Amino acid sequence: MVAGPCAVEDEKTTLEIAHTLRRVTEIFHIPLIFKASYRKANRTSMGSFSGIGDRQALRILKKVKKEFGLPVLTDVHETGEIKKVAKVADVLQVPAFLCRQTALLLACAESGRAVNIKKGQFMSPESMRHAVAKVRPRCPDVMITERGTSFGYQDLVVDFRSIPMMKQFGVPVVMDITHCLQQPNQSAGQTLGNRDFAGVMGKAAVAVGVDGIFLETHPHPSRAKSDSATMVPLDRVGSLLRQFVDIRRAVRT
Q1: Which of 65, 81, 138, 187 counts the most CB atoms within 10 A of its CB?
Q2: Strands (E), the chain
Q3: 0.90 cut: is pTM over it?
């Protein structure tokens, strides 16, 4: 599982989330990668939260690694960021909007870190093989994360055929069960969504053989500074994992 808050908001909240996620994933023997954006670059409006400052956010992620022994994932948007971020992060994430940026993909591949490529909302599953081909010769540890496809201007849909299609590339495929619920490009400059369907998306993805689940979570989603509409309440993560594990066992038998 790849999980954590949308962004690093403050040290207390970040450590609380990391502590809870480590505890619940240990119960189910699920490997955990802690996720939090140290900076948010893809913002709809100038008033949207973009971060608490690079140095402070990376310091907090480093503390998560030290205190909880967890690998850390965060996203990068420009090649100039990679050197400093790779000193902290174990996995560099290429955001969905940037999955075709060759220079960014190559720089991530050459960083010595694992790479998670988020599938663009405008990309077919078949076309993601080219993104993988840019990274894999230089980085054996690469995965793809499905996060839905644009449906009109303000909604996303998930075609679950994409999971077995992309698994044919020989890399792990992860399902982002929170970003796929977004309703982006709202006229007010804020992304909406419906977190109530996160469990549905996760169970469907596990049933068709996904390798991992990506989700964003927060103790108080309505107060979160980014993606508040789609983040799963932290106290619900354990019950979701139990359902996912049960389905995984049933499918395997």
Answers
A1: 81
A2: 2-4, 33-35, 72-75, 91-94, 114-118, 142-146, 149-150, 156-157, 173-176, 182-183, 192-193, 212-218, 232-233
A3: yes
In the chain, domain spans:
2-252
| Cα 183 to the center of its chain, rounded Å | 17
**Cβ contacts of 134 within 8 Å, gap of 6 or more:** 102, 105, 106, 109
Average pLDDT over residues 153-179: 97
10 Å CB burial of residue 147 (0-12, 13-18, 19+) is buried
- 204-244 pLDDT, tens digit per residue, is 999 999 999 999 999 999 999 988 899 999 999 999 999 99
Give the class (CATH, top level) of 2-252.
alpha beta
Among residues 97, 89, 78, the alpha carbon closest in space to that of 35 is found at 89
